[in-house]
Protein backbone atom coordinates (compact mmCIF):
# COMPACT_ATOMS: atom_id res chain seq x y z
CA UNK A 1 0.00 0.00 0.00
CA UNK A 2 2.71 2.50 0.97
CA UNK A 3 4.75 1.77 -2.15
CA UNK A 4 1.74 2.20 -4.40
CA UNK A 5 0.68 5.43 -2.69
CA UNK A 6 4.19 6.80 -3.16
CA UNK A 7 3.95 6.11 -6.90
CA UNK A 8 0.48 7.67 -7.02
CA UNK A 9 1.77 10.79 -5.27
CA UNK A 10 4.59 11.17 -7.78
CA UNK A 11 2.29 10.61 -10.73
CA UNK A 12 -0.27 13.09 -9.39
CA UNK A 13 2.30 15.85 -9.65
CA UNK A 14 3.24 14.70 -13.14
CA UNK A 15 -0.37 14.73 -14.33
CA UNK A 16 -0.89 18.18 -12.82
CA UNK A 17 1.99 19.59 -14.85
CA UNK A 18 0.98 22.26 -17.38
CA UNK A 19 2.59 23.93 -20.37
CA UNK A 20 3.53 27.01 -18.34
CA UNK A 21 5.09 27.48 -14.93
CA UNK A 22 2.00 29.32 -13.66
CA UNK A 23 -0.39 26.51 -14.61
CA UNK A 24 1.91 23.88 -13.13
CA UNK A 25 2.41 25.81 -9.90
CA UNK A 26 -1.30 26.51 -9.48
CA UNK A 27 -2.39 22.98 -10.41
CA UNK A 28 0.08 21.37 -8.01
CA UNK A 29 -0.77 23.80 -5.21
CA UNK A 30 -3.40 21.70 -3.41
CA UNK A 31 -1.60 18.42 -4.16
CA UNK A 32 1.59 19.75 -2.57
CA UNK A 33 -0.41 20.81 0.50
CA UNK A 34 -0.92 17.12 1.29
CA UNK A 35 -4.15 15.33 2.13
CA UNK A 36 -5.43 11.98 3.32
CA UNK A 37 -5.58 10.46 -0.22
CA UNK A 38 -8.65 8.59 1.02
CA UNK A 39 -9.92 7.90 -2.50
CA UNK A 40 -6.69 6.36 -3.85
CA UNK A 41 -6.47 4.24 -0.70
CA UNK A 42 -9.95 2.89 -1.43
CA UNK A 43 -9.01 2.13 -5.04
CA UNK A 44 -5.99 0.11 -3.91
CA UNK A 45 -7.83 -1.74 -1.14
CA UNK A 46 -10.80 -2.58 -3.36
CA UNK A 47 -8.47 -4.05 -5.98
CA UNK A 48 -7.81 -7.01 -3.67
CA UNK A 49 -11.25 -8.59 -4.16
CA UNK A 50 -10.87 -9.92 -7.69
CA UNK A 51 -8.09 -11.51 -9.70
CA UNK A 52 -4.71 -10.39 -10.97
CA UNK A 53 -4.35 -6.62 -11.29
CA UNK A 54 -2.57 -4.66 -13.99
CA UNK A 55 -0.42 -2.30 -11.92
CA UNK A 56 -0.55 0.54 -14.42
CA UNK A 57 -4.35 0.39 -14.63
CA UNK A 58 -4.55 0.45 -10.85
CA UNK A 59 -2.40 3.59 -10.70
CA UNK A 60 -4.47 5.20 -13.45
CA UNK A 61 -7.72 4.47 -11.58
CA UNK A 62 -6.33 6.04 -8.40
CA UNK A 63 -5.13 9.09 -10.31
CA UNK A 64 -8.55 9.63 -11.90
CA UNK A 65 -10.44 9.80 -8.62
CA UNK A 66 -7.86 11.96 -6.84
CA UNK A 67 -7.49 14.39 -9.75
CA UNK A 68 -11.27 14.71 -9.86
CA UNK A 69 -11.40 15.31 -6.12
CA UNK A 70 -8.62 17.91 -6.16
CA UNK A 71 -10.22 19.68 -9.13
CA UNK A 72 -13.49 19.95 -7.23
CA UNK A 73 -11.67 21.55 -4.27
CA UNK A 74 -10.57 24.48 -6.45
CA UNK A 75 -14.17 25.12 -7.43
CA UNK A 76 -15.41 24.63 -3.85
CA UNK A 77 -12.94 27.20 -2.53
CA UNK A 78 -14.15 29.77 -5.05
CA UNK A 79 -17.80 29.16 -4.21
CA UNK A 80 -17.08 29.23 -0.46
CA UNK A 81 -14.70 32.22 -0.75
CA UNK A 82 -12.26 30.15 1.32
CA UNK A 83 -9.03 31.55 2.75
CA UNK A 84 -7.24 28.32 3.73
CA UNK A 85 -7.08 24.83 2.26
CA UNK A 86 -5.07 22.09 4.00
CA UNK A 87 -3.24 24.62 6.12
CA UNK A 88 -2.11 26.75 3.15
CA UNK A 89 -3.62 29.80 1.45
CA UNK A 90 -6.35 28.64 -0.94
CA UNK A 91 -5.67 28.99 -4.67
CA UNK A 92 -8.34 31.65 -5.06
CA UNK A 93 -6.56 33.73 -2.42
CA UNK A 94 -3.06 33.15 -3.74
CA UNK A 95 -4.03 33.91 -7.33
CA UNK A 96 -7.65 34.87 -8.09
CA UNK A 97 -11.05 33.27 -8.56
CA UNK A 98 -10.85 33.01 -12.33
CA UNK A 99 -7.45 31.27 -12.19
CA UNK A 100 -8.69 28.84 -9.51
CA UNK A 101 -11.75 27.94 -11.60
CA UNK A 102 -9.69 27.38 -14.72
CA UNK A 103 -7.13 25.29 -12.85
CA UNK A 104 -9.97 23.14 -11.56
CA UNK A 105 -11.14 22.71 -15.17
CA UNK A 106 -7.59 21.82 -16.19
CA UNK A 107 -7.39 19.08 -13.58
CA UNK A 108 -10.80 17.72 -14.62
CA UNK A 109 -9.39 17.51 -18.14
CA UNK A 110 -6.34 15.64 -16.88
CA UNK A 111 -8.65 13.19 -15.08
CA UNK A 112 -10.62 12.72 -18.32
CA UNK A 113 -7.47 11.99 -20.30
CA UNK A 114 -6.41 9.45 -17.70
CA UNK A 115 -9.76 7.66 -17.47
CA UNK A 116 -9.88 7.36 -21.28
CA UNK A 117 -6.81 5.12 -21.00
CA UNK A 118 -8.84 2.69 -18.88
CA UNK A 119 -11.74 2.13 -21.28
CA UNK A 120 -15.36 3.00 -22.02
CA UNK A 121 -16.86 1.52 -18.85
CA UNK A 122 -14.59 3.67 -16.70
CA UNK A 123 -15.31 6.78 -18.80
CA UNK A 124 -19.06 6.22 -18.42
CA UNK A 125 -18.82 5.78 -14.65
CA UNK A 126 -16.59 8.83 -14.32
CA UNK A 127 -19.03 10.95 -16.36
CA UNK A 128 -21.99 9.82 -14.25
CA UNK A 129 -20.02 10.59 -11.09
CA UNK A 130 -19.10 14.05 -12.37
CA UNK A 131 -22.78 14.71 -13.10
CA UNK A 132 -23.64 13.82 -9.51
CA UNK A 133 -20.90 16.09 -8.17
CA UNK A 134 -22.33 19.01 -10.13
CA UNK A 135 -25.90 18.13 -9.22
CA UNK A 136 -24.97 18.08 -5.55
CA UNK A 137 -23.22 21.43 -5.77
CA UNK A 138 -26.23 23.01 -7.48
CA UNK A 139 -28.59 21.54 -4.87
CA UNK A 140 -26.39 22.91 -2.08
CA UNK A 141 -26.26 26.32 -3.73
CA UNK A 142 -30.03 26.56 -4.30
CA UNK A 143 -31.03 25.03 -0.99
CA UNK A 144 -34.09 22.93 -0.13
CA UNK A 145 -37.38 23.61 -1.89
CA UNK A 146 -40.30 25.04 0.05
CA UNK A 147 -41.67 22.37 2.35
CA UNK A 148 -38.68 20.08 1.87
CA UNK A 149 -36.96 18.72 4.97
CA UNK A 150 -33.62 20.61 5.19
CA UNK A 151 -31.86 17.64 6.78
CA UNK A 152 -33.04 15.20 4.10
CA UNK A 153 -31.99 17.72 1.45
CA UNK A 154 -28.56 18.05 3.02
CA UNK A 155 -28.02 14.28 3.18
CA UNK A 156 -28.88 14.06 -0.53
CA UNK A 157 -26.30 16.77 -1.22
CA UNK A 158 -23.67 14.88 0.77
CA UNK A 159 -24.42 11.68 -1.12
CA UNK A 160 -23.92 13.46 -4.45
CA UNK A 161 -20.97 15.70 -3.54
CA UNK A 162 -18.97 13.25 -1.44
CA UNK A 163 -20.47 9.77 -1.48
CA UNK A 164 -20.55 9.49 -5.28
CA UNK A 165 -16.81 9.88 -5.89
CA UNK A 166 -15.85 7.66 -2.97
CA UNK A 167 -18.24 4.99 -4.27
CA UNK A 168 -16.57 5.31 -7.67
CA UNK A 169 -13.17 4.93 -6.02
CA UNK A 170 -14.17 1.59 -4.53
CA UNK A 171 -15.80 0.52 -7.80
CA UNK A 172 -12.72 1.42 -9.84
CA UNK A 173 -10.56 -0.77 -7.62
CA UNK A 174 -12.95 -3.67 -7.98
CA UNK A 175 -13.23 -3.18 -11.74
CA UNK A 176 -9.47 -3.17 -12.21
CA UNK A 177 -9.28 -6.53 -10.44
CA UNK A 178 -12.15 -8.04 -12.42
CA UNK A 179 -14.28 -8.54 -9.28
CA UNK A 180 -17.66 -10.25 -9.54
CA UNK A 181 -20.89 -8.20 -9.93
CA UNK A 182 -21.87 -9.08 -6.34
CA UNK A 183 -18.56 -7.82 -5.00
CA UNK A 184 -18.71 -4.69 -7.16
CA UNK A 185 -22.15 -3.83 -5.82
CA UNK A 186 -20.98 -4.34 -2.23
CA UNK A 187 -17.98 -2.09 -2.87
CA UNK A 188 -20.20 0.57 -4.45
CA UNK A 189 -22.62 0.57 -1.53
CA UNK A 190 -19.77 0.59 0.99
CA UNK A 191 -18.07 3.49 -0.79
CA UNK A 192 -21.26 5.56 -0.89
CA UNK A 193 -22.00 4.90 2.78
CA UNK A 194 -18.48 5.52 4.07
CA UNK A 195 -18.25 8.63 1.91
CA UNK A 196 -21.34 10.09 3.55
CA UNK A 197 -19.98 9.17 6.99
CA UNK A 198 -16.67 10.78 6.11
CA UNK A 199 -18.39 14.08 5.29
CA UNK A 200 -20.64 13.98 8.36
CA UNK A 201 -17.58 13.50 10.55
CA UNK A 202 -16.00 16.50 8.82
CA UNK A 203 -19.13 18.48 9.75
CA UNK A 204 -18.44 17.78 13.41
CA UNK A 205 -14.71 18.46 13.14
CA UNK A 206 -15.40 21.85 11.50
CA UNK A 207 -17.00 22.90 14.78
CA UNK A 208 -15.09 20.96 17.43
CA UNK A 209 -11.46 21.03 16.22
CA UNK A 210 -8.91 23.83 16.04
CA UNK A 211 -6.24 21.79 14.21
CA UNK A 212 -7.82 20.77 10.90
CA UNK A 213 -5.85 22.97 8.50
CA UNK A 214 -8.99 24.99 7.90
CA UNK A 215 -10.39 27.91 9.87
CA UNK A 216 -12.81 26.55 12.53
CA UNK A 217 -16.41 27.35 11.68
CA UNK A 218 -15.73 27.85 7.96
CA UNK A 219 -19.03 26.21 7.03
CA UNK A 220 -20.85 28.25 9.66
CA UNK A 221 -19.52 31.54 8.34
CA UNK A 222 -20.37 30.63 4.76
CA UNK A 223 -23.89 29.61 5.73
CA UNK A 224 -23.30 26.02 4.59
CA UNK A 225 -25.70 23.68 6.41
CA UNK A 226 -24.13 20.76 8.26
CA UNK A 227 -25.45 17.92 10.39
CA UNK A 228 -24.81 19.61 13.79
CA UNK A 229 -26.31 22.96 12.75
CA UNK A 230 -29.38 21.34 11.20
CA UNK A 231 -29.93 19.29 14.35
CA UNK A 232 -29.54 22.40 16.51
CA UNK A 233 -32.05 24.28 14.36
CA UNK A 234 -34.59 21.49 14.95
CA UNK A 235 -34.51 22.09 18.70
CA UNK A 236 -37.66 23.51 20.31
CA UNK A 237 -35.89 24.39 23.56
CA UNK A 238 -36.28 28.17 24.23
CA UNK A 239 -32.72 28.15 25.60
CA UNK A 240 -31.48 27.54 22.05
CA UNK A 241 -33.01 30.72 20.64
CA UNK A 242 -29.72 32.65 20.71
CA UNK A 243 -27.81 29.83 19.00
CA UNK A 244 -30.47 29.47 16.30
CA UNK A 245 -30.45 33.22 15.72
CA UNK A 246 -26.67 33.16 15.28
CA UNK A 247 -26.74 30.17 12.92
CA UNK A 248 -29.24 31.99 10.69
CA UNK A 249 -27.17 35.20 10.67
CA UNK A 250 -24.26 36.01 8.33
CA UNK A 251 -21.60 35.61 11.08
CA UNK A 252 -19.26 38.10 9.45
CA UNK A 253 -18.13 39.33 12.86
CA UNK A 254 -15.43 37.19 14.48
CA UNK A 255 -17.05 37.57 17.90
CA UNK A 256 -20.38 36.22 16.63
CA UNK A 257 -18.67 33.27 14.97
CA UNK A 258 -16.73 32.48 18.15
CA UNK A 259 -19.92 32.62 20.22
CA UNK A 260 -21.71 30.30 17.79
CA UNK A 261 -18.90 27.76 17.87
CA UNK A 262 -18.79 27.83 21.66
CA UNK A 263 -22.57 27.36 21.97
CA UNK A 264 -22.54 24.53 19.43
CA UNK A 265 -19.68 22.72 21.14
CA UNK A 266 -21.79 22.54 24.31
CA UNK A 267 -25.03 21.65 22.50
CA UNK A 268 -26.53 18.12 22.47
CA UNK A 269 -26.55 18.33 18.66
CA UNK A 270 -22.85 17.40 18.66
CA UNK A 271 -23.49 14.14 20.52
CA UNK A 272 -26.50 13.46 18.27
CA UNK A 273 -24.35 14.00 15.21
CA UNK A 274 -21.65 11.67 16.56
CA UNK A 275 -24.26 9.00 17.23
CA UNK A 276 -25.49 9.30 13.63
CA UNK A 277 -21.93 8.98 12.34
CA UNK A 278 -21.43 5.82 14.40
CA UNK A 279 -24.75 4.37 13.18
CA UNK A 280 -23.97 5.01 9.53
CA UNK A 281 -20.44 3.63 9.94
CA UNK A 282 -22.02 0.44 11.22
CA UNK A 283 -24.21 0.24 8.12
CA UNK A 284 -21.11 0.69 5.94
CA UNK A 285 -19.30 -2.07 7.81
CA UNK A 286 -22.23 -4.44 7.25
CA UNK A 287 -21.82 -3.96 3.47
CA UNK A 288 -18.48 -5.75 3.69
CA UNK A 289 -20.02 -9.06 4.75
CA UNK A 290 -19.99 -10.49 1.21
CA UNK A 291 -16.30 -9.72 0.67
CA UNK A 292 -13.63 -12.40 1.20
CA UNK A 293 -11.91 -12.19 4.56
CA UNK A 294 -8.32 -11.01 4.60
CA UNK A 295 -6.09 -7.98 5.18
CA UNK A 296 -7.92 -5.79 2.64
CA UNK A 297 -11.34 -6.39 4.20
CA UNK A 298 -9.87 -5.84 7.67
CA UNK A 299 -8.44 -2.52 6.47
CA UNK A 300 -11.85 -1.43 5.16
CA UNK A 301 -13.43 -2.37 8.48
CA UNK A 302 -10.79 -0.32 10.27
CA UNK A 303 -11.66 2.64 8.07
CA UNK A 304 -15.16 2.51 9.53
CA UNK A 305 -13.70 2.73 13.03
CA UNK A 306 -11.32 5.55 12.08
CA UNK A 307 -14.08 7.69 10.61
CA UNK A 308 -16.01 7.42 13.88
CA UNK A 309 -12.93 8.07 16.01
CA UNK A 310 -11.92 11.21 14.10
CA UNK A 311 -15.25 12.86 14.93
CA UNK A 312 -14.87 12.44 18.70
UniProtKB/TrEMBL annotation:
It comes from the Bacteria. PROSITE patterns: POLYPRENYL_SYNTHASE_2 (PS00444). InterPro entries: Isoprenoid_synthase_dom_sf, Polyprenyl_synt, Polyprenyl_synt_CS. Gene3D superfamilies: Farnesyl Diphosphate Synthase. Its cofactor is Mg(2+). SUPFAM superfamilies: Terpenoid synthases. Signal peptide: none annotated. The keyword Hydrolase does not apply. Keywords: Magnesium, Metal-binding, Transferase. PANTHER family: ALL TRANS-POLYPRENYL-DIPHOSPHATE SYNTHASE PDSS1 (PTHR12001:SF69), GERANYLGERANYL PYROPHOSPHATE SYNTHASE (PTHR12001). This is Polyprenyl synthetase family protein.
Amino acid sequence: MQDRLAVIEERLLERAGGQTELVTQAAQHIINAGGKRFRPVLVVLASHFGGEVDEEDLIRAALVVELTHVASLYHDDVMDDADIRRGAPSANRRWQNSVAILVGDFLFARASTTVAELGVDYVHLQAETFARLVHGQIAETIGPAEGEDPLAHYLDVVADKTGSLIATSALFGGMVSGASPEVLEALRQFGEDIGIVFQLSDDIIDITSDVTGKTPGTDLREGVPTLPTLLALRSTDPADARLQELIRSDLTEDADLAETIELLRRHPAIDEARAEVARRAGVARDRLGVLPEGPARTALEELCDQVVTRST
